Amino acid sequence: MRPVLLSPLPHIxxxxxxxxxxxxxxxxxxxxxxxxxSGFLRFVSWxxxxxxALGVATLLLALSIVRGFSxxxxxxxxxFGAHVQVESIRHTPxxxxxxxxxxxxxxxxxASVQPVVTEFVLLRRSSQDIDGVGLWGTDRLPVYLEDHLTxxxxxxxxxxxxxxxxxxxxxxxxxxxxxxxxxxxxxxxRNLRDTNSLLMQRPRFKQxxxxxxxxxxxxxxxxxxxxxxxxxxxxLLNYAPxxxxxxxxxxxxxAAAESVALALEETxxxxxxxxxxxxxxxxxxxxxxxxxxxxxxxxxxxxxxxAFNVMxxxxxxxxxxxxxxxxxxxMGASQQDIQKLYLHLGFxxxxxxxxxGLVLAWGLGMLQLHYGIIGLPAEAYYMTTAPIxxxxxxxxxxxxxxxxxxxxxxxxxxxxxSRILPLRVIRFG
Length: 429
What we know:
The chain is α+β, with helices and mostly antiparallel strands. The protein has helices at 16-29, 38-80, 97-105, 143-147, 170-176, 219-222, 230-237, 257-268, 277-280, 282-320, 322-330, 335-371, 378-381, 392-418, 422-428; strands spanning 84-88, 110-124, 130-138, 149-152, 163-169, 183-188, 204-214, 225-229, 246-251, 272-276.
């Protein structure tokens, strides 16, 4: 009989990676010690997970609120002006407005230009109700203000030869008791400052009707600026047909405001001053930049503290699982295997806490976005509720940083576990 040669059985291997992951997951799900410490270890594990979740959620919410502040304030300020403002360096009216605006339109990255006639005047409702305001003549009410009208209309071209339309801020309306349909008188003293005139002149005045009321929560603006048609403002301020106070320039990208302002000054020549929005409102933007620089740094410490909580928790698990570690080592697990096992455990702890933090931050952010739960005093923060801007890139970046910190914090406990001597533990453990 011919012998039959049996082929060797295929070598079946259980990958140690899956084994380490399995053990780490068992430790993570059932992190409880022995005896009197059985409940305490599980409590500490949840504290570590909660610390990571709280740190991640707080950091994300802080970043989102700071970004929201930046975007909202920029939108408000641009809503009152433009990315770049072009005016005379002598603060006198610009002449040949049509030619000047045509030159500005030829510049790269310019989206639109708008002529503006503005001057501080006196607004009189009655003999007792008089206030100084900034009259703003424009062809069209800025889109941002149209979106923030609380009552009335933003159309400026309507009116009669005697009475012109006027849009005022809600704060100014409250100070003077103005409502839609009220008639007011605006007096301009610009002609009284003409030192070349030898004759005594009377202030120029015109009747206006309140046709719209806006509110932006920027108290300095809402109490100060009133809007009307450009030609009406020219007539009241005694401007020539081709004279304007300044040109408001909107760009395709606000980030290019500084470079475009410099290019306009070089192109338009001497006597012309071009300022970017960041230069005009430097104080407000500096306030926002300060928050963007400091708040994430301070809140980021929470994530670092949470990572150290993970380290402490893993060290406690190492102490409680010393006998099991010895058994694993006696069965052939190397130091690197045990070290990776605890790195897996740190990853699970950090990953679970990070996931909870991401969900928590997104949920609270959406609640604030839709319902404005957190209110703010408008006189201090220029808005009535805390703005929030949720960016996916922030969530991805914070999650990666959190996981890396947790892995880094797991390295020391993993090293401690890998150096446990199996024989000593089994014999005396």
